[in-house]
Amino acid sequence: MTLKDKTVNVVVVDDSPFMRKIISDILNSDDGIKVIGDAKNGKKAIEIIKELKPDVVTMDIEMPIMNGLDALKEIMISHPVPVVMLSSLTYHGAQLTMEALELGAIDFIQKPTNIFAVNSQILKKEIIQKVKGAHKAKLISCSKAFNSSPKPSIVLANKGRLIRQKERDNIIAIGISTGGPRALQNIIPLVPKNFPGSFLVVQHMPPGFTKSLAERLNGISNVIVKEAEDSEKILPAHIYIAPGNYHLGIKEDSSKDLFIELTQDPPVSGHRPSADVLFQSIAKTKQNNINITAVIMTGMGSDGTKGLSVLKEKKEAYIVAQDEESSVVYGMPKSALKAGVVDVVTPLEKIMDVIVKRVGV
């Protein structure tokens, strides 16, 4: 029996009996998933995970006795298993979700804001897809992962001229999904201070969470990391994160300066923001004085591949793909590689080296 055919055994952890039943019913409605146990707090969760050895765990964050974060830490050390967090749509909830992803959770599901939404078909589909996706994901332990603490910045030559002389616009576009927050936390601290280029990042994430992601990354970065705002000028030494529920692109004015463009056009392949939209938007720019590097990183599915193909054809962009070993899920990089548009495949910890060399400073 292959991994694809295997029934996914799940443990559901939530302090609410109502939510435990709803989530269990949703998961059991899929022929490929079976809920084999549940727990009402983190302490009980650790016990039942040790006993039942599930394939995937869904974990609420805020629970009595032992919360989801403390349980996650213990699980990752003593009984590593893919964990999908249940996250409330509040600023505090988003912050805790980012922390959970940094600690090794594979993904998260946004809790519905009212009881009438829990049985929506969209939510059901999302829960089932994310649990199945987590089952296919790779667990990268803290000891094996590229250390998530801030790193010394890469030293650039000729620092004084980097931003003063605008010889060309250096645009680095990144498409990333499952496993993305932790991967970004590993590479963003390596962006050098005064870096003569601008990063545009599409991370698949719902509204309310991308702001928290940007804030956490900004706290460990040598450059400015922020959630992108429509029509703001794109500046060097800045990293712009696409807001949840908005496509991120670029537009030009008569002076050929570049600006952020946010739209709520229909989702592409189920995603808004979409990496395809970002890459295709860059390919449509009229000016030729842009040095474009596109990076496709860990994530499920194939978002980004079509856009990279257009970008390669129209702009001769340099395409970087994260390697399989360092990817939590190798779907997006693998798809781009199969399409024949990738120039270099590299592990997570080498991506920034490749970008710096590409920019030529």
TrEMBL record:
It comes from Natronincola peptidivorans. It catalyses: L-glutaminyl-[protein] + H2O = L-glutamyl-[protein] + NH4(+); [protein]-L-glutamate 5-O-methyl ester + H2O = L-glutamyl-[protein] + methanol + H(+). The keyword Phosphoprotein applies. Residues 165-361 form the CheB-type methylesterase domain. Residues 9-126 form the Response regulatory domain. It is found in: Cytoplasm. Belongs to the CheB family. The modification 4-aspartylphosphate is found at residue 60. InterPro entries: CheB-like, CheB_C, CheY-like_superfamily, Sig_transdc_resp-reg_Me-estase, Sig_transdc_resp-reg_receiver. HAMAP family: CheB_chemtxs. Its EC number is 3.1.1.61, 3.5.1.44. The active site is at 177, 204, 303. GO terms for cellular component: cytoplasm. Phosphorylated by CheA. Phosphorylation of the N-terminal regulatory domain activates the methylesterase activity. Contains a C-terminal catalytic domain, and an N-terminal region which modulates catalytic activity. One of its GO terms (molecular function) is phosphorelay response regulator activity. PROSITE patterns: CHEB, RESPONSE_REGULATORY. One of its GO terms (biological process) is chemotaxis. Involved in chemotaxis. Part of a chemotaxis signal transduction system that modulates chemotaxis in response to various stimuli. Catalyzes the demethylation of specific methylglutamate residues introduced into the chemoreceptors (methyl-accepting chemotaxis proteins or MCP) by CheR. Also mediates the irreversible deamidation of specific glutamine residues to glutamic acid. Keywords: Chemotaxis, Cytoplasm, Hydrolase, Phosphoprotein. This is Protein-glutamate methylesterase/protein-glutamine glutaminase. The keyword Transmembrane helix does not apply.
